[in-house]
Amino acid sequence: MSSSPLRFLARHPDFARFFTAMIFVNIGGQIQAVTIAWQIYDIARRTMGVKESAFLVGMAGLAQFLPLFCLALIGGSLADRMSRRAIVLGALGIETLTAILLGLFALRGDETFLPIFASIALFGAARAFLQPASTAMKPMLVPREEMPRAISISSLAWQFAVILGPWIGGLIIASASPSLAYGIVACLYMTGIVICLAIRISTTPVRQAGSAMRQIREGLIYVWTNKIILGAMSLDLFAVLLGSVIALLPAFAADVLHVGPEGFGLLRSGPALGAALAAYLLVRRPMVRHAGRRMLWAVALFGVATLVFAVSRSMVLSVAALAILGAADMISVYVRQTLVQIVTPDHMRGRVSAVSGLFISASNELGEFESGVAARLLGPVGAAIFGGVGTLVVTGLWAKWFPELRDADRLDGKDQPDEAETAKSSLAAQ
Fold first, then answer.
1. CA 408, CA 415: separation in Å to the nearest integer?
2. Helix (H, G, I), strand (E, B) or coil at 406
3. CATH H-level, domain 5-201+212-429: superfamily
4. Fewer CB in a 10 Å sphere around the end CB: N or C, the chain?
5. Judging by beta carbons within 10 Å of its beta carbon (0-12, 13-18, 19+), is residue 183 exposed, middle or buried?
6. pLDDT at residue 397 is higher than 90
């Protein structure tokens, strides 16, 4: 069954408001990420050399991940105890502050990294609360049976931002300055805040008994005992952790492909081009059967595309490889998010989303760190080859170690227990 995204949004106005707000926020986040990466790489390249600059770009990912890792479970518990919209608004306020600070530092022209990394860490702390609250809020805005399509539409919006944001960021950096880019980011974040204020549906979950620590434990037990979800999360974690080339793109743009900041923006948009097409196809025709096997094949394709990108010296081939890589990753994300959102009872969604967010952030931010370390030891090309091979190895191992994931079939929830049964099982496990 196919359905127009516009008709879906018209049927669910509060979801449409949230969807629109996140487009602005995600575009801002992508512009900010590109600006930070290029600014760090440019400063370090002029003062330290190519390998050290790629390493420092990777360190930016670590600076964002550490506070997120420390605070995510607290953020997830909070999202199951109070208004999720209020948490989203507060986190977006902090993200706006970080963009303003980064803009002021760039305007001063200091070639020191400490203020930049401190701002990145503050941004990571805000994300620790934004991610579980926003993820858990989505199922409150649409009926449960329409969640797969809502996830596809949200993914399409995210990929639109990933396509447009890096391109805009590259143009601003090339034609103006990083400080202007950060100013635009702050305006985009504030626009998201204004739109979220118009959401009318109550986003406060039913309050559950027990302390925050007990609730965190309940969420961890749920993830650990559901081997399909654990397998899907961990496969995505290790595959992207090893295969991510995002932190290597400044080095490829400047020193391998020689395309400058404009080309860097296009390279950053490459994965989203393929992911957006995959997301659109999933909106029109949601995946229902053979989800586990398709996810494993998609992750294997992710590894192959990484290898092609590593050896390419053509801008066209490089962008094409990144597009295929992005489409494969989109399928993996779709399977994981659909399983988590449909199966998890609402009163646990904040905590489970926090665990899922940790896996995602570990794969992205630590993936950037791993790429930076590998680039320092092997060079950018060697690091990308290492990541592609590692992804293929992980895929084979997970197909063997997680037969539940390999054999997972339906994504429409018909072969899963309902929310009440899931809640009883998680409480019994305690």
1. 10
2. helix
3. MFS general substrate transporter like domains (1.20.1250.20)
4. N
5. buried
6. yes
The confidence band for 421, taking pLDDT boundaries of 50, 70 and 90, is very low
DSSP state of 203: -
pLDDT tens digits for range 178-208: 899 999 999 999 999 999 999 999 888 877 6
Sorted by sequence, the CB contacts under 8 Å of residue 327 that are 6+ apart come out as 274, 275, 277, 278
Residue 87 to residues 72, 75, 135, 349: CA-CA distances in angstroms?
A: 13, 9, 12, 14
Q: How far apart are CA 97 and CA 52, in angstroms?
A: 29
In 10 A of CB 175, how many CB atoms? 10
Angle at 189 between CA 186 and CA 191, to 5 degrees: 110
Q: Name the phi and psi angles at 128, rounded to 5.
A: -60, -25
User: How much is the pLDDT for 319?
Assistant: 93
Query: Cβ neighbours of residue 409 under 8 Å, at least 6 residues apart?
Result: 289, 290, 291, 292, 415
Half-sphere exposure of 189 (CA within 13 A, CB side): 28
Q: Report d(CA 339, CA 388) in Å as an integer.
A: 26
pTM, full prediction? 0.75
Q: Could you give the dihedral angle defined by the CA atoms of residues 20, 26, 31 and 32, in that order, rounded to the nearest 10 degrees?
A: 130
- Longest pairwise C-alpha distance within the chain: 60
Compute the Cα dihedral for 251, 256, 259, 260 and give only its sign.
positive
Three-state DSSP state, 287: coil
Amino acid at 296: L
Give the amino acid at 226: N
Q: What is the pLDDT of residues 14-26, one digit of tens each?
A: 999 999 999 999 9
